Amino acid sequence: MLELRDIKDAKRRKSMKLLIIRHGDPNYSIDSLTEKGWREAEYLSERLSGMDIKKFYVSSMGRAKDTASFTLKKMGRSAEECKWLREFAPLICHPGEKEEKIVWDWLPQDWTKEERFYQKDHWFEPELLREAKVREEYEWVTGELDRLLERHGYVREGNYYRVREANTDTIVFFCHFGLGCVLLSHLLGISPMVLWHGFCAAPTSIAEVVTEERRKGIASFRMRAYGDTSHLYVKGEEPSNSARFCECYDNVQERHD
Question: Which residues form the signal peptide (predicted)?
Answer without folding.
Answer: none
